[in-house]
């Protein structure tokens, strides 16, 4: 007899082919179960499972936090799959109502991930809207960790398409050359689109690899790029070389990307909401999470419509496109002026000699905070990122002056960085996104050394 409680499958994600295959099998099972329930409800399949069959919930976790197991091993109590939940929350009999998939957020802003409960209906709405915009179901390539929403959604879209994903082995890190066999397989059928999802640092590596890698990327129908603030110059450079880049904005709570090339997906609405003088983005539609398992979600219910109040600043342009200005909690208040980091970062990135950059605020007794730029200089400039000595080198002084002048012309002098710190590279989370907390630590460690300039 079936248990009354849900059947909970905890699946290790990660970047290895084995982990990705297990994650795909579990997500494919969710699609199969949903289709069987739909068929049974419509009477189209007499042999379809009864709706009273056990409710299956898939939990994707970082591989280091999950013991190796098979999909046959399932828990029937949330206390084991969710050890971080207090006993009373884990014992709530309604905890997993309307939840088929649990994916943790990266925790990049707070350091503490949320457990995001998603329904299979929300994932299907996202996958189908994506296919509608891109040109139909096709062959998907996984080059992202399977336990983050971007990677999980690649696998889910493949399951919805009725195809097997082409998995890129990233166990030893991302290598553009490893994309080549997967792209060859995904584009082998002339009538089947080939799709790939990357984070910006991967796209940059592909452009730097050039040659066969760039040529292969041009054969794809779409290369989705998101996961962090995307450098406009990087996107333009890729498109100029024939790569069909589609920029995306979204989060775990929206089943991944919900805005493509600044336009909401079909069935998704986005607006800006004034919250304490800040314009925050809010999202509505079938792609929204069911709930956080570990606390209340920031929902706004208006006129029978449920909106998710995001932590992102943004606005809706007269052309009805969505412009994302960065995280609300990343706003830098300097001399009474609220400065959004995203426009500053774009201006810094467009400065000659800057290969990559991140913007953050540092405490200051006079200004409250000052704008700081962590930059990865072009190697040709000879700027050292080594935290030695006590005075910035002439090369760093020159680059810093150039950055301040360029940002001043673009945005006004008040938004120009007053601190510039050279790094060899921006530290990343395992999702491929920039790790803001690690950037802050690296910047603090270099203040007062030859790798830092301060006005």
Automatic annotation (TrEMBL):
Residues 67-90 are annotated as: Disordered. Residues 41-265 form the AMP-dependent synthetase/ligase domain. Residues 67-79 have a biased composition (Polar residues). InterPro entries: AMP-bd_C, AMP-bd_C_sf, AMP-dep_synth/lig_dom, ANL_N_sf, ATP-dep_AMP-bd_enzyme. Residues 346-433 form the AMP-binding enzyme C-terminal domain. PANTHER family: LONG-CHAIN-FATTY-ACID--COA LIGASE (PTHR43767), NONRIBOSOMAL PEPTIDE SYNTHASE PES1 (EUROFUNG)-RELATED (PTHR43767:SF1). This is AMP-binding protein. The lineage of its organism: Bacteria, Bacillati, Actinomycetota, Actinomycetes, Actinomycetales.
